[in-house]
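Appendix B, example 12.
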Amino acid sequence: CKSQGCVLRAASTVARIVKLSTTAQRALEVGLLDVVLERLRRDAVRAQSEDDGTLDTLDAFVRSIALSMKGSDAAIEAVMQDLNNAKSLVKLLSCRKEGVVGNAAFALQLIGNKKEHLAALGAAGAVPGLLAVVHHKRGAPQKNAALALSRVVKREENMAALKAMHGLEILNAYMRF
């Protein structure tokens, strides 16, 4: 089925399935995560869409990815096999839908827990993207972005980029709230 409603229900179902590490691993093995990543890369360019159906579907896809990575290190490795996946997650940080932004920031936080991916996150533009969320959003997206940023800047080059954007001052102001 190619209708937006069917795709949304399928994406929401995947998000519920991958909550457990065993099912996240199985979803990875059968290629379900690859399908979700393909759709995410394709639809991330429409993150500023006025179409709420597209944004709801994106929300379910990015939630699926974040939850699968929460339960499976292999899922993190699968996501980071292609830099375009990280770039798509960064692009979603500018979406107008709060859930998409919060889940994208959470996904980047999970990737940032792995030192071997910090250079790729820097190359994907994670520092300016996350800093913009910390500076301009509120609530869960802001918190997730601040936590993700704290991990990403553990790499010296990423910290230098943050300093160049006066990011430490922005983070300091966020911490006062």
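The mean pLDDT is 89. The chain is about 75% helix and 0% strand.
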